[in-house]
Amino acid sequence: MEAVGVVTAVGPGLTDRKVGDIVAYAGNPMGSYAEEQILPASVAVPVAPAVDYKIAASVLLKGMTAYVLLHRCFKVEAGHTVLVHAAAGGVGSLLCQWAKALGATVIGTVSTEEKASQAAEDGCHHVIIYTKVDFVAKVNEITSGKGVNVVYDSVGRDTFQGSLACLMSRGYMVSFGQSSGGPDPVPLSDLAPKSLFLTRPSLMHYTATREELLQAAGEVFANIASGVLRVRVNHTYPLSDASRVHADLEARKTSGSIVLIPDS
Q: Which residues form the signal peptide (predicted)?
């Protein structure tokens, strides 16, 4: 569901894309494990010349997700304090870098010392290894009991209730994934003590129009070109080895982003 390529043909009536353009897409339609793909023109976005094509191929989906989370679901501004779970993950890494650049104080949770080092490199002012300490108590300590403005939670079941506890009054709980499983149903009354906001966003709803899509993609590429966002492409494989990529993923042999390169 994510690729970069060279336009080899365009349909009739198109004026803003031409043969030879470098374009990217992220989302539907599926089918990017291919040497050639037919795409609706409305989903193809131009790749800035300053952005390496492998970087672009590895980051658009995660990058637009980070943009939407930081600018649209909750608008992070200087002075805010944010909590990012899985801070060393693909989206988490971008959230930490971008939030720091926006002037926020960034608290990140990770599972290991190695991931803690990466999270610190990526802009976390405070890194919590949740396998060693209670992240709720640590956030309370870091914020002197005030809590955070927003939590970005891609973990789900294991962190959900703790995330709510970390929020300040009128804070925003942004649940955008569930790597540990879906959270239990939340009674509305759980939000009442601090007048909390809860959202479960989908990127596709925030890039539904061409204008929204170009805005999100443009922000991602601009921040990569300017150095605000650093993307780790740690592995490239030939497209013909796609099955090996999945085996290596399942065996936890990879880290960072992976890019498949067509054989021809």
A: none
CA distance 92 to 159: 15
Predicted confidence (pLDDT) per residue in 155-204, tens digit: 989 999 999 999 999 999 999 988 888 988 999 999 999 999 999 999 99
Domain identity same for 184 and 212: no
The span from the CA of 237 to the CA of 257, in Å, is 11
19-33 b/e with 16+ CB inside 10 Å = b? eeebbbbbeeeeebe
What are the tens digits of pLDDT across the range 206-248? 999 999 999 999 999 999 999 999 998 888 999 999 999 999 8
Q: Which of 7, 47, 8, 1 is nearest to 24 (CA)?
A: 47
pTM: 0.93
Summary mean pLDDT of the chain: 94
CB 158 within 8 A of CB 140: no
* Residue 35 structural domain: 2-61+208-261
pLDDT value for 15: 83
Residue type, 250: E
**Is 67 contained in some domain?**
no
Total structural domains within the chain: 2
Q: Name the token pair of 259.
A: 């890019």
**Residue where the block lists tokens 């191929």:** 57
Cβ–Cβ contacts within 10 Å for residue 234, how many? 11
Instruction: Name residues whose C-beta falls within 8 Å of residue 82's C-beta, 6 or more positions apart in sequence.
Output: 76, 95, 99, 104, 105, 106, 107, 148, 149, 150, 151, 152
Are 114 and 141 spatial neighbours (Cβ–Cβ below 8 Å)? no
